[in-house]
Amino acid sequence: MIRLILFRLIQGIPLLVLMSVAVFLLAKLAPGDPISNALAGQLSPDAIAQIRQLYGLDQPASWQYLLWLKNLLSGHWGVSLTMRTPVLEVLAPAFINTLILTLAAVVLCLIPGVVVGVVCGLWQGKKRDRLVMLLVQFSHNIPVFWLAVFFIWLFAVKLRWFPVSGMYDMRGDQGMGDLLWHLFLPALSTALISMLILARQVRSSVIDIMHADFMRTYRALGYSRRVLLWRHLGRNLLAPIVSITGLQVGYLLSGVLFIEKIFAWPGLGTQLYNAAAGQDYPTLQTGVMLVATCFLLVNLVSDLLQDGLDPRHRETF
After folding, report:
1. What is the pTM of this model?
2. Residue 79 pairs with which residues in a beta bridge?
3. Is residue 317 over pLDDT 50?
4. In this model, does residue 316 exceed pLDDT 60?
5. Contact criterion met (CB below 8 Å) for 266 and 258
6. Spatial distance between the Cα atoms of 97 and 104, rounded to a whole number of angstroms
7. Cβ distance 212 to 240 under 8 Å?
8. Which one, of 44, 25, 43, 35, lies nearest residue 84 by Cα?
9. Average pLDDT over residues 103-117
10. Which of 73, 100, 141, 154 sits 20 to 30 Å CA-CA off 290?
11. Considering only CA atoms, which of 95, 288, 246, 255 is closest in space to residue 187?
12. Helices (H), the chain
């Protein structure tokens, strides 16, 4: 298993390298440089030139990339140009907040999605199945930000059930209940589309399993429906669910980055938006690489779980 994990990690290294090159080049293609853009009009040209030399911005682009990559790998992520604080101190709490929102969205996506998919798969061909799948087909094409705006209008403006922004009520006790109260709307906005996609794909997997030859054999041998559902359908459904969920977690993470700005959630997406608006390239570059690394780790965990659940996917080293 350790060799398998190392092999998958090595496979992800070229992707991260390409991502780092793309992130670095996008920052270099912007007009000017981060120091000149941040300090123009505040210091003299000679002082700005000295600071550029201090940060190595007077060196060739290839040398700048190697220096940036070295600092990135060693944990020296630089200083935010807009906040004048280390990038690590800016991104660490924001990443934790994003992780909280992402995990809540995964829970809201996974549990209802699997339940709806399994039930609709068992209802195949019935009117109830057609009605639910019609709603799924119609709803899963709605953009995430439209859902967020609609939920704000419905649950916050009209019904006044949930707050619109932030993680806590500044006048409250800022406890777990307060966090969950503020967490529901952004998590639901992020998770709903992925939940519908997951439900449709789980339904397809349930139909395939129920019509498989081994299930026909078990039915012919007189196994009860309860045994077929709990023992054989559930066991064979775990691997597809893990695979689909792994793909959807990446989609959820990207959706969270947009939702955070709409709900003023103090997470990584908000920090990346502010960094892009303020041309804070050290924060922006490090944040994007952090998101890319999360994608890689999610896919790694998903593949390992799938290999453990389905022996056909295991590789021999």
Report:
1. 0.82
2. 86
3. no
4. no
5. no
6. 11
7. no
8. 35
9. 90
10. 141
11. 255
12. 2-29, 34-39, 45-54, 61-74, 87-122, 127-139, 144-151, 176-210, 213-220, 225-227, 234-262, 268-277, 281-309
- Give 172-196 pLDDT, tens digit per residue: 677 788 888 888 999 998 888 888 8
Type of residue numbered 192: L
Nearest by Cα to 81 from 46, 27, 39, 30: 39
The CA-based angle 39-45-50, given to 5 degrees, is: 85
Query: Which amino acid does the sequence have at 151?
Result: F
Cα 260 to Cα 265, 288, 306, distances in angstroms = 5, 15, 31
SS3 241: helix
**Band (37; pLDDT cuts 50, 70, 90):** low
- Report CA-CA distances (Å) from 184 to 118, 245, 275: 25, 20, 26
Mean pLDDT (whole number) for 270-288: 84
- Distances in Å between the alpha carbon of 205 and those of 107, 121, 130, 133, 294? 20, 8, 16, 14, 27
pLDDT at 27: 73
pLDDT digits (tens, 9 = 90+) for 56-71: 666 777 888 888 888 8
In angstroms, the CA 196 to CA 137 distance is: 8
The one-letter code for the residue type at 296 is L
